[in-house]
Amino acid sequence: MTIWISLTGRETITSSKSVTTSFVSIDRVVIVGASLAGLRAAEALRDDGFTGHLTLIGNEPWEPYDRPPLSKSVLAGWLPIDHTTLPQLRDIQAEWILGVAAVGLDRQNHQVHLADGRLVDFDRLLIATGTRARPWVNQEEAALDGVFTLRTREDSSRLSTRLASGPKHVLVIGGGFTGSEVASVCRELGLPVTLAERGPTPLVGALGQAAGTVFAKWQRQYGVDLRCNVTVMALEGDTQGRLRRARLSDGDVLEIDVAVVALGAIRNVEWLHDAKLAADTRGVACDASCRAFDEDGMVTDDIFVAGDVARWPNPLYNGMLLSVEHWGNAVEQAKTAAHNMVCVPSERRPHKYLPAFWSNQFGVNIKSVGLPTIADEIVLTQGTAEERRFVAVYGQKGRIVAALAVNAPLLLPAYQALIEARAPFPPELYAADGPLKLRPVSAGFLPHGHTTHSPGAASTGPGPSTPEVQPIGKDADMLADPRIPLGPKSL
Amino acid sequence: MKIVVDLNRCLSYGQCVFAAPNVFRFRGEQSLEYDYNPADELRIQVERAAAACPVRAISIGKDEHDDLDLTHRKGDYNEQ
Questions:
Q1: What would you measure as the largest C-alpha separation in chain B, in angstroms?
Q2: How close does chain A come to B45, measured CA to CA in Å?
Q3: How many CB pairs below 8 Å do chains A and B form together?
Q4: CA distance A449 to A452
Q5: Which residues of chain A are within 8 Å of residue B66 when distances are taken between CB atoms?
Q6: Which helix (H) or strand (E) covers residue A480, if one does?
Q7: Which residue in A277, A445, A475, A483 has the fewest CB atoms around it within 10 Å?
Q8: How far, in Å, CA of A262 to CA of A149, rounded?
Q9: B79 neighbourhood in chain A, CB within 8 Å
Q10: Rounded to the nearest 10 degrees, what angle do helices A327-342 and A36-47 cross at?
């Protein structure tokens, strides 16, 4: 079966040239990015009745695998690395091109260029190239034996082997979710670990300073040598190129043999450099139906975006374009994009994902719904930090925008309903385990670029052509370089 | 066999841990961990776990007789 889509509904004739654009057949769909979003999109395409040729292209040589356990159960040694392969939930009858990166997109000729020189034709393209780990700034130091990043199964495999060999002292650079999870695993393995975070608390980028303060306390109780408002200035090796020391901005010199660089993610958009799409470090901008915008802000008809690399307008947050590095978004956006790739225009549906994520660290389960990073206030609504079980709600301009549940996943769905209803903040809940009086405090989010880890989910401007807000001059250099401490006073 | 759990959906009821203790476990009070690729002998246990999940968070892959057709794989397969 071939699916035909009317683009204009009629033939158009301009001057002497006859231009026939009335029908485009969709015989070939290409998905670039063979991880969670790519796989789920492929399944959804078949669910939606697409019977043409389907190609999945991935730069890693593996069948799609899941990344969340790479910093948790794999690292802890409980789950073997080759037990992370994702299931295929239906037959997808796809051609897989794995271990080869896409290096270019020719929109004129509808072709993807591969690193080995091949050209792959498409009628519809899905961009699902995700992100990669941000490397340590100094290349020579990054190349030292003992310096790791954590994004792929090779990364996790190498790091778990090294941690199992019993290093003397581990340094984690960056206190976001990945860095904090690594520090947690190190303590469970009985390893001495120092975590250096440029911001005032761990997890400040995703959850704000008020919530981060609670996690800072727990990290220390777990035995992490937590250094906040502190950066790593330099990593030093011995004559064999093995990591030996780290120089910190607080003046300390640590004798270490493992450093885990957890400075957030970089979106894989470089291969789109010449494609004239609205793609930059924030991701590839697309509309609510997941169609990519070009650099002039015009929507394309044949190129779609899903997952970590996408930037799309969310109606729940006043149409601001969101960049979200969440497992759940990859799944949902892939399904919506796939549907819209092959349906008639009148049946397109919007991607209305409510951000949600989880993390397991320091013996607690952390779950969140909504978008904490746009909040100005936070209030504890149930439980307490002391009993290691609580819910806190984030508010922006008097509306609830997000909720955070720690060791209390059962309580979260009720808050999701409040967020979707844009209920007033602070909420009146009368929960039996709530405080006598709600006391909102400042949520404590830092300006863009001030944390050395990813916020996980962030609002990135109102439109596809909105330029990136770049700090200028001296501040820009300071923010871009994770070695430079900002501290409470320096900016 | 291959499985995946939607951990956003998961509310830590723990029914899967009772049904298939070698596949699912809690770390701490509420943090579910699981084996994505349990041995085929555990299939009945895993299917019970999926059926018992109150929020239907567990998905089981299709029968894998016609697993990924990797004949098109090109490039470098070396892990480490």
A1: 44
A2: 17
A3: 123
A4: 7
A5: 91
A6: helix A473-480
A7: A475
A8: 6
A9: 61, 153-154, 157
A10: 40
In this structure, are residues A323 and A282 in contact, taking their beta carbons and an 8 Å threshold? Answer: yes
* Single-letter code of the amino acid located at A136: W
Measured distance CA(A283)–CA(A266) in Å, rounded: 9
Q: Nearest residue of A to residue B31 by CA position? A: A365
CA angle A246, A249, A251 (to 5 degrees): 80
**Mean pLDDT of the residues in chain A:** 91
Cβ of residue B74 closer than 8 Å to a chain A Cβ: yes
CA B9 to chain A, closest CA, distance in angstroms equals 9
Tokens for A43, please give them: 């399944």
Q: Which domains does chain A have, with CATH numbers?
A: 3-9+21-66+87-132+266-347 (3.50.50.60), 139-265 (3.50.50.60), 356-459 (3.30.390.30)
A positions 399-428 inside 8 Å of B (CB): 407-410, 412-413
For residue A487, name the pLDDT band (cuts at 50, 70, 90).
Answer: low
* Distance between CA atoms of residues A146 and A144, nearest Å: 6
Q: Does A364 touch chain B if contact means CB atoms closer than 8 Å?
A: yes
Listed by number, the residues of chain B in 22-51 with a beta carbon closer than 8 Å to a beta carbon of chain A are 27-31, 33, 35-37
Cα-Cα-Cα-Cα dihedral of A3, A30, A302, A24, to 10°? -30
Q: Range with the lowest mean pLDDT among A36-50, A196-210, A251-265, B60-74?
A: B60-74
DSSP state of A174: -
Which CATH topology does B3-63 take? Answer: Alpha-Beta Plaits (3.30.70)
Nearest C-alpha in A relative to B75: A99
Q: Reduce the DSSP state of residue A46 to 3 states and report it.
A: helix
pLDDT per residue as tens digits for the range A293-322: 999 999 999 999 999 999 999 877 777 899
